[in-house]
Amino acid sequence: MISLPVARRLIGIQRVLVRHGLDDYVRATHLYRPLRFLFYLSPWTWFARSQGTTRGERLRLALEELGPIFIKFGQALSTRRDLLPRDIADELAKLQDRVPPFASATAMAQIERALGQPIVEQFGSFEEAPLAAASIAQVHVATLKDGREVVVKVLRPGMRELIERDLEVLYALAGLAERYWPESKRLRPVEVVEEYEKTILDELDLMREAANASQLKRNFGSSPLLHVPEVHWDLCRRNVMVMERIRGVPISDIERLRELGTDIQKLAENGVTLFFTQVFRHNFFHADMHPGNIFVDVTDPANPKYMAVDFGIVSALEPRDQYYLAANFLAFFDRDWRRIAELHLESGWIPPNTRLSELTGAVRTVCEPIFNKPLGEISFGIVLLRLFELARRFGMRVQPQLILLQKTLLNVEGLGRDLYPELDLFKTARPILRQWMNERIGPEAFTQGLKEHWPDLAESLKMLPVVLQRSVRRAYEDDFSLRTESSSVDLLRSQLRVAERRRNSMIAGAAFFLGGVVWLAMATQPDWLGWLLAAGGAAWMLAGRRS
Predict the structure, then answer these.
(1) C-alpha–C-alpha distance, residues 275 and 60, integer Å
(2) What is the sign, positive or negative, of the torsion defined by CA atoms of 199, 201, 202, 203?
(3) How far apart are alpha carbons 487 and 484 in whole angstroms?
(4) pTM confidence score
């Protein structure tokens, strides 16, 4: 049952859409369909119409009026110009950093309350007019007392209340979907909203954002790929953050980048490298990479460097998901469609009763046509539609924990398409993933893991003979008690001999296995001997267990 506040908000959403002349959107939503005629008959619908002239402008103005969640939806759409009409894409791009600001006096008062001192005592100078404004916060330019240029980010007032109100609407709609929509079991709408709630509420804590920026900066250090601004921790609070001001060319200003002689191909390839490095090598990635948050340092045009801002949304993957994604990418690059099907079954993303051959054929049908094509020749709109059809056909469940990654990948691919449509995404990404997989599951990774966990492993192995001895004694005592109730003494003796052989075999195998582990952990050469001892010991223990 929908609560009264949610019902009011739904009606308010439709009212905004009608007032901005987006009647088709109202008809498409089917929200309170019988009531929409009231909007057409209401005087405020016609006399308070939007001043926007084009459909793109009207849509942008409506999203701005509806609030932060809707603005973020528009920002996400704006990164995929290939999937939108040009007029709509141009208008939605303004949502990236040109949302109407709130009053400078309000911003300055909030900064002073947060820092506990007047602005003139904290900063050498402070520009009242905001440099940029977005859905959650706006940014002002300032200088520190020592003359260093910084930007001061301050949250919009009342954001939490607005967001929680719209989250309640999303939960209500997701609950209705789970109750009445058969597809909901696969699409898991409530879990998707839960994941989104964590993400957007985290954005309201600027101390968390400052910590994200510091972690990202530490990950890349002096890397030529990415510059992350320095955080000034002594001036950071939950609703105010101060960090180094960067000066770069917005990545969306491709004409300016070309005028400056930027190596556009290298910039696009570095973007792919940057994404896969964050996701797999660091397992910590910037998950809001729309053009408004990305700039380019063209001090050396032949070696352009990315500069990122706005670190409110970051994410990481569980090791299991990380492995399956990397394996899927590599299988795709190798055109191993059967392996992709196997991975989807192994990961549990597809129901276990799915026929492997049928899934393989479906994956081949979707993926084969786009392989080795440059971005400019791929219709991702068609690819997405086919992937949705494939997911529906095989009952593939949505993985809420991967939504941010999928969104970021779409952002990166959209940036690559705008920068350099001839980019070979596969050629750039393949060596990064292969190296990561080798480091993750190769012999060196195994040896390193043994070294790191050797103290715990050694303690456990010390107990292995005792555990085995107790197990054998328990088995012996159980067998003895059973056989005293039977008249077959010969069978009892036979079982005792088997137990004795099993015990000896297990102890000997454990000794060989332990010796091999120690050999590898100490990096003694030749390392193949350690592997042989460990494998032989494991096989011996297994044989003893089965004997």
Answers:
(1) 29
(2) positive
(3) 7
(4) 0.73
